Each structure stands twice: as structure tokens, then as C-alpha cells.
Amino acid sequence: MPAKKLMRAVQYDGYGGGAAALKVNPECRSEVKKDVGFGAVTGGCRLENLRRVGRVRVFENIRRRTGKLYSSSVKFLISLLRLFVNMFFVGPAMDVTGEVIEVGTGVKNLKAGDKVVTTLGPHAAGGLAEYVVAKESLTAARPPEVSAAAAAGLPVAGLTAHQALTDSAGIKLDGSGKQVNVLVTAASGGVGHYAVQLAKLGNTHVTATCGARNLDFVKRLGADEVLDYKTPDGAALKSPSGIKYDFVIHCASGIPWSTFEPNLSEKGKVIDITPTSRALLACAAKMLTLSKKQLVPLLLIPKREKLNFLVNLVKEGKLKTVIDSKHLLSEAEDAWAKIIEGHATGKIIVEP
Ligand SMILES: NC(=O)c1ccc[n+]([C@@H]2O[C@H](COP(=O)([O-])OP(=O)(O)OC[C@H]3O[C@@H](n4cnc5c(N)ncnc54)[C@H](OP(=O)(O)O)[C@@H]3O)[C@@H](O)[C@H]2O)c1
């Protein structure tokens, strides 16, 4: 089935409007390209899930206003404006599951009809739509045992947790490494709930922080001890059993280095997935002073092999996506508002 020329997509209607600026555009142009460069592209994915953004609509609005005035100078101006607008109107949704509709010439391992999960990248984004164009290099097959919603939660959150634990902390997820103590902050959130489960596949003792309402939930994920972040000990990140952390997978925000420092083992490392400018300064200071305790900012570099690994874990029942709530595409504004509030337990999913 070829992708439709026009599709429903959720797009920003203006700049700086938060969730309320997201609107459903029923006439968004679907941008399926057959030949999109080297190694790329699974035509378009029909979504069982998620997202698209404001760039196209903004451009179409400009077109409507300029009517049929396609002189070359207007075209040139529009191209410039489009470039400018594209720089700012980035969509809120990157993770998508769906079915491959068409593949480009460089695609080797996917074909029309395949069920897949993919991530679009922060600059392309735009997953809140009926169709998206995705890179083969960031797309994994979704087996029937893994639901569309469970797969949709995985890419950015699961890969961030995986990268922090394996690449940054060096933890072996087959349990073969030496035992280490890990603290996961905001363990009830999208990244945190995957981080706890993945950490427990390694040889780890896991301490986790979350709100009071999620203490049991995080224990059920496998954490060995759980701290309510609103209590004095929780705010101080003090382990109830008195251990020092070898690694902190830091998914919350606003915790200063001075809070981490006394809780770290001699060579303890804070892997910060929400680094602020203060954190970056702390990181530079630790490096300059050759401190054994380190703060390491993390930026996700998504990889298909790792996404395949996570999908397989879900298939084998070793990892689960906990779903906070599901929303229809027409209610994407509510979903986005909930994400911005920062009180999700697990992942928020949007469905057509
Ligand atoms: N570096 C990267 O490449 C990368 C990749 C992905 C995500 N991120 C960032 O990582 C952060 C976490 O993302 P997320 O999607 O996992 O967040 P999230 O799902 O919004 O996390 C919400 C959860 O965190 C809990 N929480 C909030 N503040 C807390 C605190 N101080 N201590 C303990 N728990 C706390 C909340 O509990 P209550 O409701 O009880 O308050 C809620 O359950 C975001 O800032 C995101 O932008 C970075």
C-alpha cells in the first residue's frame, strides 16, 4: 500500500506555545522519498504509534499566503525561510513503531510489510503522524511477541539507559562483571524504569529514588533498595544499607555535585543524562583536578544493534515497558502536557 500524499499529523501551530501549540493537521503532506541517500530509509511507516511536527504546516501556511506566486525569487525566499523555520520547529516525538510501506534503494534488510520500531533523531523527529521516513540504520524488526506500545517506549529511553549502563559504566548485562553498586535517580520515569531493570541483568546492587507513590513499583522492577526523594535521606541520596555508589545513572534533575560526592565510592562516577551548565562545569573541574570521582554527561547515540538487543529482551520477558497512559493522536496535546509535567510512571504512548 503506497503512502498517502496527505496525512494526519500533529504539528506545532506556533513557537513557544508548549503543549497547547500542538494541533492535528488533517492535510499534512507526507514526505515519503524513495531515494533518500546512502544506507537510509524505510519508505514510510504506517504508525501504530506517534508523532510529527510543525515544519510542514508552517511552510504550507506560508505557501497559502503567497498564493500561486511562484517566481524564482519568492521560491528562493521561501526556501531560506523554510531552512530557518526548520531550525526551530523541531517535533516532540522521535520514537515510532509501525509497518514499512516502501523502502528506498539503499535499504538492504527491510521490506514492505515488516513491523518495525525506530527512532527519528532530534532534528528530524516528527513522529506524531500517520507516516514517517526513518533510517534503516536506526530501525529494528518488531517480533509479534512484542506489542507496538511496548516497542514504542524503547528507543530513546531504553537506549539511553543501556548506553549509560554499558558504555559509560561498563556494566556487563549478562551478569559476568564484578559486583558494583548503582544508584538510579528518577527510577519511576521513562529512562529510569528501564535503567533499573537493565542494571539488574548485570551483577549489581541497585538503589533507586522515586516519589512515595512509586516505592513498591520500583521495588517490583528489581531495585534492591528504594528511597523517597522527598524525605531527608532521599534528598541526600543516602543508601539505607550505607553503601557507596560506584555508578549513578542520574535521570532526575537539579541535584548538585555536593549531594552526590559524599555518597560515591572512591572512583564513583555520576553519569548525567540531564546535564546542566553547572554540571558541565563540575565535569570540567573533576577532569582538571584529576579527581577520581567523576561526573560524565551523556548524549544518546542511538544504534540499531542495541535497539535489537532491547527488543529481544522484551521478547524474552527480561525487560518490560511500563505504560503510564495511552492517548489518541487527536489528544496528543494532553500526552505532551503530561510529559512536560514530569510525573509519568514509565512511558506515555500516543496511538492513532
Ligand atoms: N541525555 C540524553 O540523551 C537523554 C535521553 C533521554 C532522556 N533524557 C532526559 O532524561 C530526563 C529523564 O527523562 P524521563 O523521560 O525518564 O523522565 P520522566 O519520565 O518525565 O520522569 C518522571 C518521573 O521521575 C520522577 N521524579 C521527578 N523528579 C525526581 C527526583 N528528583 N527524584 C526522583 N524521582 C523524580 C517522577 O516522580 P513523581 O511524579 O513522584 O515526582 C516521575 O515518576 C529528562 O530530562 C530527559 O530530557 C536525556
Automatic annotation (TrEMBL):
Domain Enoyl reductase (ER) residue range list: 45-350
Top-level taxon of origin: Eukaryota
SMART domains on file: PKS_ER (SM00829)
Coiled-coil parts of chain: none
Pfam families registered for this protein in UniProt: ADH_N, ADH_zinc_N_2
Gene Ontology MF terms in the entry: oxidoreductase activity
CDD domains listed in its UniProt record: MDR1 (cd08267)
Name recorded for this polypeptide: Enoyl reductase (ER) domain-containing protein
Species annotation: Rubroshorea leprosula
